[in-house]
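#struct-help
A.M.: can someone run this one for me? Single chain, 443 residues.
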Amino acid sequence: MKKLLLFITLLSVSCQNNNKSFPIDNIKNGVIYEVNVRQYSKTGNFDDFTKDIHRLKDLGVKIIWLMPIHPISQIKRKGTLGSYYSISDYKQVNPEFGSKKDLDELITEAHKNDMLVILDWVANHTGWDHDWINTNPEYYTKNSNGEITDPINPDTGQSWGWTDVADLNFDNMEMQNEMIEAMEYWVKEHDIDGYRLDAAHSCPPSFWKKSIDRLKNIKNVLMLAESDGYHPGGFELIEMFDMSYNWSGHHVLNSIYKKENNSDDLRENISRNINDYSSDHILMNFTSNHDENTWAGTVFDRYGKGAKTFGALTYFLPGIPLIYNGQEYGLEKRLEFFEKDFIPKNKSDFYDFYSNLNLIKKENNLLNIDSKVKFEVIEIENKNIVCFKRSKANESIYFIANLSDEILEFKTGIKGNFQSIIKKTNYTLESNTLKGWEFHILK
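D.P.: on it. C-alpha cells below:
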C-alpha cells in the first residue's frame, strides 16, 4: 500500500509582530470553551456560570470565551432581547447578566482554576443608541444622503441585513483611539486575558496593529480573530493575531458529512493551512459555535451519528479545539439568538466523551501545541477513511476514522502493536475494518 507522508510542523501560539509572545505553556494542552451567558442557564447571569467553572476542569478548559457582555441597544432591536453584537456601551455590562462585580468574581474564579478569560469584542459596528450616534456622528459610515448606514457588503453595495447596528468609519482616527481605550479599560480594570475579535477582517490591519501593540504593553493578552487568512485582509491581517478560526477546515468537515467532499479534501486543506500560515500562528478547530448552532444547525443536524467522530478529530488536528457550551450535554436544539432560551444540562454520554478526550490530551504530550511535534497525513486509498500521525523523537500517536456510515476495510501497511486509547483494546493498524463513524486514537 502506497503511503504519502506529509510532515507538518504543528502550529504554536506566539505573536512575533509584537513585543511580547503569548506564553503557550498556559494553554498548550487545553481547550477553549465558548459561553453564551444568556442561554447558559435558566437565569442567564454571570453567577450561574461562575458556579460551574470548577466543573470545566473535567473538560480541559484553559480559555473561557464570553460572548459580548455589554448592554444591548433598544433602537432597531431584533426580537425581544436583541443581539449581543448590537452594543450600546463598550465600558458597561448588560444588566441582564449581572454587575461588574459579578463579572469580576467570574474572572477571579477562572484565574483560581488556571483558566484565562477573553471577551468577545465587536469593533466593526455599534447599536443605534450608542452615545456616539449623537455626540460623534462622524464616527460612522454615511450614505450619499449623509445618513448613517448599517454595514454594507462591499461586493454588492447592499446591506448585509444587520439592520440593528450602525457601521463604524475606520477612517476616523479619533474613533479608533476611543475604541482602543475601551479595550484597554477591561484589561486594566478587570484583568481580562484577551479578546475574541468579531469579524476581524472587517477592520483595517493598521487598527488591529495599534490595538495589539497597546494592549500587550499592559498585559500579555491572547488575541483570537474571528477570521482566517482566506478572508478579506488575508494573511497580512491574520498573522497579527495569536489565533484565528479554522473556517476552511470546518467547512470541509461539514461538506464531508454531506458527501460533497471526502478525505482527500481534508488532507488538502491541512496541507494548505500548514503552507499558508506561519509556524507561530494557531488555528481554532471546532464543530460548533454560536453562529453554527443558531443559523446552520446543531452538530446532529450537520454531522448526524458522526458528531463524536468529527469532535474527536478537532482534538487531533493541528491547533486547539473549541467546545461551545451545551456540546458537552449533547445539545440537540438550536439556541434562540434574540430571545431567552437555555441549555438543558442533562447528563449524557457526550460529557464523558469530552472528559475522556481531555484526559487523553493531558496524558499524551504529543497532542499538545508543540512546534517539535510532527504531524503526518497517511494516505489511504479509501476516500472515506482518514489516518493521521503525531510524533516526536521515538514517540507517536495515531488517529484513524471512518467518515461514513458504511462498514469499510482499509490497509495502511503500518506494522506494530497498537492500543486504542478510547476503547482500551488492542488494535491492528496494518489492515482492519471500521464500522460506520468508528474512530480510534492509537498508541
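A.M.: thanks! Residues 173-190 form the longest helix (18 residues).
D.P.: also worth noting: Residues 1-19 have pLDDT under 50 and may be disordered.
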